[in-house]
Amino acid sequence: MARPPTQIQTPGLRTLRPRPLSRRSLLTGLLATGAVAAAGCSRAPAEGKVEGGDLLERLRDSGTVRIGIASEPPFGYVNDQGKPTGQSPEVTKVIFNRLGVENVVPVPTEFGSLIPGLKAQLFDVVSAGMYINPTRCEQVLFSDPDYLMLDAFVVRKGNPHGITRYEDIVEKGLRLASGEAYAQIGNAEAAGVRNVLVLPDQVAGLDAVVQGRVDAFAGTAITVRSVVRNSARAEDTEAFQPEIDGEPVYGAGGFAFRLSERNLRDAFNEQLHRLKANNNRELLKIVGPFGFTREEMTDLTAEELCG
């Protein structure tokens, strides 16, 4: 399928708008009180307070970092051997190894529980390809993004309705589904789509399209591309840049840290930029096996995406 157009990834495009709904929505409440207690006696400042933090030193002492993942290939999941893998965990492993932390332990959870779990200190970093947007930036500190993603659809083989954009769903009176808390729900609603069927994930979306319950399933281009790879009855559409009021809505993902741990975020960011040096040469070696290409690379920053 066609890759994302390179012009959206250039430094010149800096007009960013808050996403009406991120790829997976942000739950702002903390987890249950018992979960907070289980996190132990780690020090944390009052809600909303940004400090330097000493978590990196503590992680080096213990030799282990806990990462929150959401079991969503290819962004992050646990493999058959019980090891964390996917685009984000593999980048995390390399960076923390260089920071002096060798052991990476996955903590799987639902995507909507990642930020609450991070704030409750159930893990130390969110490593799930999480989109960076202003709403989330009020809750956590983000690294700069390590990818920029476009939208696409799962459709029946041959794309009988000619679906290429969200506007096609509206104009043709078609039925659309998307994943639970996916940003594509907000993108579709901004284009005028009503009653988006929310499904657990892209696999359920593929089944819904094949069974004729919906006409299309919206997701990230790479998620859609991977789920239809072995399907004889469905295909993916060409990737496209979603817009709101004529302006691009960027789907750029990064790694999230507690507001109290700016030192850790900054050290992580420094290593990430080293991976991105020389035209992302080293970063592409890590994420390439999961379907990411040079066209998904970006030089946008968290500051720009946070607004």
From TrEMBL:
Keywords: Signal. CDD domains: PBP2_Ehub_like (cd01002). Pfam families: SBP_bac_3 (PF00497). This is Ectoine/hydroxyectoine ABC transporter substrate-binding protein EhuB. Coiled coil: none annotated. Residues 64-286 form the Solute-binding protein family 3/N-terminal domain. It comes from the Bacteria. The keyword Magnesium does not apply. PROSITE patterns: TAT (PS51318).
